[in-house]
Amino acid sequence: MGKKILIIAGEHSGDFYGAALTKNLKSLDPTLEITGIGSERMRKAGAVLLHDSSDWSAIGLLEASIKIPRLLWIFNNLKKYLRKHKQDLIVLIDFPTFNMRLARFARKSGMKSVYYFPPSAWTKKTDRALEVSSTVDKVITTFYYTREIYMKAGKEAAFFGHPIVGLLKPELSREGVMELFNISPDKKLISIFPGSRVHEINTLLPVFIESAKIISEKLSVQFAISCVSEYMEPSIRHCLERYNFHAKVVTGYPYALMNVSCFIIATSGTITLEAAYFGIPMVIGYKISPISWFIARKTLDLPPYAGLPNLILQSKVIPEFIQNDLSPDSIAEKVLHILLNHEKIKKMKEDLKEVLKKLGPSDAGEKIAEEIYSMI
Questions:
Q1: What's the confidence (pLDDT) of residue 288?
Q2: Does domain 4-165+360-374 have CATH number 3.30.1490.20?
Q3: For a FRET experiment, which of 47, 90, 272, 354 has its CA 20 to 30 Å from that of 37?
Q4: Residues 6+ apart with CB under 8 A from 68
Q5: Rounded (10°) angle between helices 342-357 and 328-339
Q6: Which regions of 12-123 does DSSP assign to beta strands (E)?
Q7: Cα-flanking dihedrals φ and ψ of residue 90, to 5°?
Q8: Which DSSP letter does residue 325 get?
Q9: Domain 174-357 has CATH 3.90.180.10
């Protein structure tokens, strides 16, 4: 019987990295029994899913509070499962509120755990780094800056690079995606990536669509909206109808869509790092409820930037529109200013190349899998 590994990925990006890890672990040892929490990508990679986390993620106190009852039920269900099926290793990917509780349970139950994509990625405070390192058996960071935070706390953390390098490839050729979604090759394409969470679609997409309407009045361009799953598609189409705007809805194929885009309007998150990987100029927007924002500012040591490319370079190379700064006019004005200035486009592409250099070697994912496998 093979060794048992449980992987917990609590949101869309976690599912992506959990799937890549599952595939790499299976290539190291086909006898591994990998179960977990994730979504379609992890299932296709060979993990047996105990729960689907497609709609788990939320940012902000009020946004997250709605999901608490269901997550508590799943957490208790998972503890019962682990008491019956002891694992050789538990791999925790991001999603700290849930995963730190599970890490404490694993330690009490005598099961080893590793935190991959750990908390305290950007804050300079070390208290969370101390808590994480004291609870799990190993920490694997995906940014060098994060490793420095853990080292500053006096704790060891491994860094092999970011697994995104070498992972991302367009799912279709340029011609293929244009034909499949009826995108004209004769017009520049601006793509909107509104996020994977329901509240992001409800809060951010209307602002992005209104900004697109302003841009289309000034420039002869076409628009597409990236949709992460069929589950989200009706909400996106309803939003387009409500604001009387035409844009192609591309479900799946996010990297193929990036590859044919001249510019991206993106929700803050992993998508901004993926766009940086492809060298696509962008602007970033995000907003949570006023109460959640007030609490976050009062209680958290927030990083200086929201976008991952800016955090990596510690400089605002990508324009950000956060909370009260987010509006259709402000986004449209900045997009037009960049698109109509060849030097600004050139400079942003150069900065994005610097982001890519800081992400590490192309075999980071394989090295991370080898490190995790060595623990069992």
A1: 77
A2: no
A3: 272
A4: none
A5: 100
A6: 33-38, 48-52, 89-93, 113-116
A7: -115, 125
A8: G
A9: no
pLDDT, tens digit, for every residue of 59-92? 444 444 456 777 889 999 999 999 999 999 999 9
Q: Rounded mean pLDDT of 343-360? A: 94
Model pLDDT, residue 52:
87
Residue 314, CB-side half-sphere exposure with 13 Å CA sphere: 9
- Helix, strand, or coil here: 283? strand
Q: Where are the domains of the chain?
A: 4-165+360-374, 174-357
Alpha carbon distance 73, 361 (integer Å): 40
Name the residue with tokens 């060849």.
342
**What's the confidence (pLDDT) of residue 60?**
45
**CATH fold match for the domains 4-165+360-374 and 174-357:** yes
Structure tokens belonging to residue 230: 């069929």
User: How many Å apart are CA 13 and CA 36, to the nearest integer?
Assistant: 15
Return the SS3 of 267: strand
User: Is residue 118 within 8 Å of residue 155, measured between CB atoms?
Assistant: no
User: What pTM was estimated for this model as a whole?
Assistant: 0.85
Query: How many other β-carbons are positioned within 10 Å of the β-carbon of residue 266?
Result: 28
pLDDT at 142 over 80: yes
Mean pLDDT of the chain: 89
- Let me know: does 57 contact 12? Beta carbons within 8 Å: yes
